[in-house]
Amino acid sequence: MSGQILEGISLRDATIQRLSARVKTLSAQPTLVVVQIGDRADSVAYIKAKKSFGEKIGARVIHEMLPEKVSSDAVVSCIKKHNTDHSVHGIIVQLPLPVHLDQHTILEAIDPKKDVDGLTSTHTQELWEDGSEIVLPATTRGILSLLDCYQIPVEGKKVVIVGRSVLVGKPTAMAFLNRNATVTICHRGTQNLSEETLRADILIVAIGKPHFITKDFVREGQVVIDVGINTLADGKLQEEVGKRKLVGDVDFENVSKIVSAISPVPGGVGAMTVASLFENLLDLTGE
Ligand code: NAD
Prior knowledge:
Largest sheet: 6 strands, parallel
Oligomer: single chain
Number of domains: 2
Number of strands: 11
Bound molecules: nicotinamide-adenine-dinucleotide
């Protein structure tokens, strides 16, 4: 028997209805600025998804496109221009950045009151301190919303997170800790990874390696959240999954036969990440 599929698409569609209704009650149109540097194909696709979601709920999305070789100063001044524009409620810089730019410097230029992805130090510190005014990074909020929607409890559970990035792994670990889960973070240096993953009640995987988590890493009764979004490059893998272009970090076909619930890719956390970004935007309007 296969595990329950944690559908992000249907939850995203419900979120669109809810946020559209909320937008109509606001005194000004919520406005998001997306800063794109360079023209990475994955960034183009993610920004397209944001614009489409914004359109559906009646939010305005301003797309700032800067060249790959732009200087750090030019990026910072672009961000600062929007920091002082009262019609803008949220600013996000599409990651990853070209290697010559320092991520910390760029993200810190965002006014924390407009930091819609919760990555400035003001928000990360609040997350560490368990503050109540937290803007959770969109992926983290999306994961929690998915679990909440399916009424999967977090408190007291053993949560194992594979991946410790600033964008996903670390904030997600802190958010689960704040919800009274017992959290283990695994990474490239973790020895005997399967020993750790088999301990989990909830296993969250964000490493960026297609089908890395096989049936040997899971057991019955677990909930598996696959954050990975990998574009297929390898012909063999392409054949294995038919026409789908995107796969997760989890071998969905085999793992889903063992665990009790699993989020698919596409259509799982990714769908909820965009929805959560706009939830954050509406929260930042302060209304
Ligand atoms: P990253 O490259 O910044 O971090 C990867 C992490 O995985 C690192 O901490 C590394 O230590 C760990 N890792 C790598 N190989 C490992 C291994 N063999 N064993 C254990 N740990 C290992 O990546 P990221 O930005 O966190 O993204 C991870 C994945 O999630 C990517 O596929 C990305 O596209 C996807 N992603 C999805 C969403 C979404 O909305 N669903 C959002 C952001 C990122």
